[in-house]
Design a protein that fits this description.
The complex is a heterodimer. A two-stranded antiparallel ribbon of chain A has the order 1-4. In chain A, strands 2-3 form a two-stranded antiparallel ribbon. By secondary structure, chain A is mostly helical. Helices cover 72% and strands 4% of the residues of chain A. Chain A has a domain of 205 residues. Chain B is an alpha/beta fold. Chain B has one domain: 3-Layer(aba) Sandwich (Rossmann fold), CATH 3.40.50. In chain B, strands 6-7-8-3-9-10 form a 6-stranded mixed beta sheet, with helices on both faces. In chain B, α3 runs parallel beside α6 and α4 runs antiparallel to α6. The longest helix of chain B has 16 residues. Chain B is globular. Classes of the chains: A mainly alpha, B alpha/beta. The interface between A and B is medium-sized, with 17 and 26 residues.
Chain lengths: 303, 234
């Protein structure tokens, strides 16, 4: 196998980091705009995986098509599911509490999370147990030097990269993206520019949820199994990644996620138990040295 | 143009304004003067929809706009330069101005208005590609006024435009306020710098602990012995 830091491990680390990054972006964007830690966010990831699963079988049953086409629609379905559920969560659960004490929203977020997990477990067609995730794209192993890497791992990294470049363009270049940034920087000023801040917030939930949904599909393809509680662990790790990078800061979330992915993979290669714990260790160390996270700016807000 | 009747705004149990009434006639400059905590800022925030009122009414152009949301008042023609300027710090000056055109949905019109702003405040043009957060206080104030001009309201609400500025800049800002008024924009000005405000205003209202008390033509108010003692330090 070679060293802990072999090319194989670096690529695996980037793959894990890519999935964390897609989830962490939603955490950080939502925090940036409404100062809420959306604890239901990991469940949008899980819903994305289930939507992908369902769409794959519907496509296979109804339409005989090339796997590339199916894969594209499966990705769309996962993003749509994550995005729409996130949007509905905002409108139904968080919006009525917007100007109430922060703790109400936080507790509600935990409630929404549990609701989504138990509701899906209780649905007869879903159920609480593991399901094997189908090969949306046939699995092929690729040899790069001494490393053997699955094409799925490469796809994970590339899809995440494309989505993140898209998000960067959206946020930096488009009027909508600028309006979103304006709302997260100063709500009063944004309103005085004529921006409907509720629309900006809704759009942020939609995008964040869609990214988590896409991550759900990628995780499903990679580890090929899904279950209603699959969002808890990656959700927590992605949250840590967002805090590590400086919550509210978009590049910070991505940086934090890759650091976490790599650290976890290297540590697991040494000892799998350390791998599980390393995220928390890094978080504690970084927060001791830089309480605002790696790229975070100082803020007076508390959770 | 604007008519505020018996306006009342509370923050929780604290009544920030209890009974404020005044009028802003078309094309004029009206100033609200008063001490810290008199309710000047709250009054402006209630007019532009940033605060919900607990009573009273606001009529704009003959329409009841009481408690209409801020983003709906912008296209109707109310532009508000808020206290503390509230520039978007990580957007460039240009982006700050472009966003002010959000409700216009007309790139050409936004560009024209931005050019006007650059003409009025050449300093803003020089800084166009800098981040809003890197501007000095005076430049931020110019940008804040510039943004309001891009939104293009018939009524401009100005909250303490002179706050924290060097005297030279205060004069410049006030000169531009008069110029903006001359071009046809009605102005409601809130100021602690009562002398300067009364100097350029047509009408003045005095706010005291949540009530509107004295009012009249700005010249008369400036000569009122009570005002001279309390706000002009004479």
């Amino acid at each position: 196998m070679g060293s802990i830091f072999s090319i194989q491990q670096v690529i695996n680390g980037l793959q894990v980091g890519s999935i964390y990054a897609l989830i962490a972006l939603g955490y950080t964007m939502v925090y940036g705009i409404v100062r809420l830690i959306n604890f239901a966010h990991g469940d949008f990831f899980m819903l994305g995986a289930y939507a992908a699963y369902g769409t794959f079988f519907v496509f296979n049953a109804l339409i005989v098509s090339k796997s590339g086409v199916t894969a594209f629609f499966v990705l769309l379905a996962s993003m749509a599911a994550g995005g729409i559920i996130a949007l509905l969560t905002n409108q139904l659960a968080y919006r009525p509490l917007r100007y109430k004490p922060k703790l109400s929203s936080l507790i509600t977020a935990i409630g929404v999370s549990m609701f989504l997990e138990y509701f899906l477990s209780a649905l007869p067609m879903v159920g609480p147990s593991y399901r094997p995730f189908p090969d949306v794209i046939p699995r092929v192993n690729i040899k790069i030097g001494t490393a053997t890497i699955s094409n799925i791992v490469i796809i994970d990294i590339l899809v995440a990269a494309v989505l993140m470049v898209g998000l960067t363009l959206l946020v930096k270049k488009t009027a909508l993206g600028k309006a979103m940034r304006a709302v997260s920087q100063d709500k009063d000023a944004a309103r005085l520019m004529g921006i409907d801040i509720e629309k900006g917030i809704a759009f942020t939930f939609l995008i964040g949820g869609a990214f988590a949904g896409a991550a759900g599909l990628l995780a499903g393809m990679t580890y090929p199994r899904i279950f209603p509680y699959m969002g808890i662990q990656p959700g927590l790790k992605a949250f840590i990644a967002a805090v590590l990078g400086g919550i509210g800061n978009i590049p910070g979330a991505v940086l934090g996620a890759y650091i976490m992915g790599l650290a976890e993979t290297f540590a697991s290669a040494y000892n799998s138990l350390i791998g599980e714990g390393i995220a928390f260790a890094i978080l504690i160390v970084v927060l001791l040295v830089r309480p605002t996270g790696l790229l975070g700016e100082k803020t007076a807000d508390k959770i | 143009m604007l008519e505020v009747k018996n306006l009342k705004v509370s923050y929780g149990k604290i009544e920030a304004i209890k009974d404020v009434s005044f009028e802003v006639p078309d094309g004029k400059i009206v100033t609200l003067i008063g001490a810290n905590g008199a309710g000047k800022t709250t009054t402006l925030r209630a007019i532009s929809g940033l605060e919900k009122s607990a009573g009273g009414s606001v009529f704009f152009d003959g329409k009841d706009v009481t408690n209409l949301e801020a983003h709906k008042l912008v296209p109707l023609g109310i532009s508000h330069v808020p206290e503390g300027r509230k520039i978007f710090p990580t957007l460039t000056v240009r982006e700050n101005l472009e966003l002010a055109g959000w409700t216009l949905r007309n790139k050409k019109l936004i560009k024209e208005r931005m050019e006007e702003v650059f003409e009025i405040f050449p300093r803003v043009k020089e800084r166009a590609d800098q981040l809003g957060g890197t501007l000095s206080g005076g430049e931020q104030q110019m940008l804040a006024v510039g943004r309001a001009l891009v939104t293009g309201g018939k009524l401009l609400l100005l909250d303490e435009p002179s706050m924290g500025l060097a005297p030279v800049l205060v004069d410049e800002i006030f000169t531009q306020i008069v110029a903006i008024n001359k071009r046809g924009t009605t102005i409601l000005l809130v100021e602690q710098n009562a002398a300067e405000a009364l100097d350029i205003a047509d009408f003045a209202y005095v706010l005291e602990v949540g009530y509107s008390t004295l009012h009249g033509p700005a010249k008369d108010i400036a000569n009122d012995p009570r005002v001279r003692e309390a706000y002009l330090g004479v």
